[in-house]
Amino acid sequence: MVESQRWIKDLGVIKIIYLLVVFVIQIVNCLPDVRASCKTVPNLTKSQLDLCYKANDVTLAAIEGLELAIFECQHQFRWNRWNCSSLKSKSRNPHSSNLFKKGYRESAFGHAITAAGVVLSVARACSQGRLLSCGCDPNAHRRSLSKSLRDTLEVEKSRFLDTIIDNPFIIDKRLERNFGLDTNEVVSKKRIKQQLANRWKWAGCSHNIDFGVEFSELFLDSREKAGDLQSQINLHNNNVGRSVVERNLVSKCKCHGLSGSCQLKTCWKSSPDFRTVGKILKQQFRRAVLVDQSNFGNGMIIYNGNNKRRKSKSANFRPSIVQNEMHNNVMLPKRRNKRNKMENSLFYFQKSPNFCERDTLSDIAGTHGRRCNRNSTGSDSCSSLCCGRGYNLVKEVTNQRCNCRFHWCCYVECQTCEVVEWISICN
């Protein structure tokens, strides 16, 4: 009798173990295949695939950043001869384009905008809690932060408080009462700053941009291993794109307290709008710097002072070698202000074609069939886009909603109207 009860008990344990094993197998089968998802994006290098296998969620966020970069590039160059069609491919990887193998000014912009897109996409995914390897709030792991990052947080806090104190409204007697100060007392800015600092708390998702920058370096810079002129310029342009995101972080704050009294203020650094990043990079594209290879045979980059678009006031700069983790040797002007401008400038080493005719080897679509503005004199004009080939007027009929009326309650009723427009199409 005892043995039968023991056998029944053991059988129950075996059933429980069996059900647990079946449950675990079902969960594993439902999980996405990491290797399969990584291989859906072609033209990734071996190092990028290895990174994808180790950090699949972050890599997929980086791929989203590449797509974001393509869309922004198309917006910024929608009225130029080159309209970023070279970067748009079925592979979702703009680096598969032959244009990235060139040293054109447009190639420089492509490298910069994709690096910035990866930074922004990964940082946002981190702040939204979509990544297992990244946390949102630095205060949650404040002790694990590096000393440099803690110091940076304190510097940002001090700058923000100085900005607030310089506002005359802050010195109002009513706010002094909220600080617990005597209304008849002459209050110094230093004391008000101290009172504000005691009620300050860093929170939110500050400096998650650092995680995005680090992953962008791992993911994109790993493609450049040759150490030649083109690889060094690509690395430089990648850094330019990332630095634009870093330099344009936005401070956001949220007040806490009764009736919005702001007894406690929570502030964080937020990533900039990508449209802003695109506009800045478009300006840097116009001021891009033509560089040459040094005659010393060591692969160093030197500034070409004869660049027509960016003439130097002095052609006799004494170059100083700047060591960088990602660059080998880059020779920049010794003057600090000129050197800073160079570090934030896009580099290219090949004169761009006119992009008028189709060139499949370079992934240039040409301007045949492009829409142009016959009333404009800018880059969107028919004389510029059509490259002197002329244009045809095409009648375009579209259906649009019109004569909309609001009815109580509550719907909107519209009619459908035909809109006829004559558009200009390049020959």
TrEMBL record:
Membrane-spanning segments: 12-29
InterPro entries: Wnt, Wnt_C, Wnt_CS
Protein's job: Ligand for members of the frizzled family of seven transmembrane receptors.
Record's GO cellular component terms: extracellular space
Pfam families for this protein: wnt
GO process annotations (BP): canonical Wnt signaling pathway; cell fate commitment; cell morphogenesis; developmental growth involved in morphogenesis; muscle organ development; neuron differentiation
Protein source organism: Polypedilum vanderplanki
Record's protein name: Protein Wnt
Xref: SMART domains: WNT1
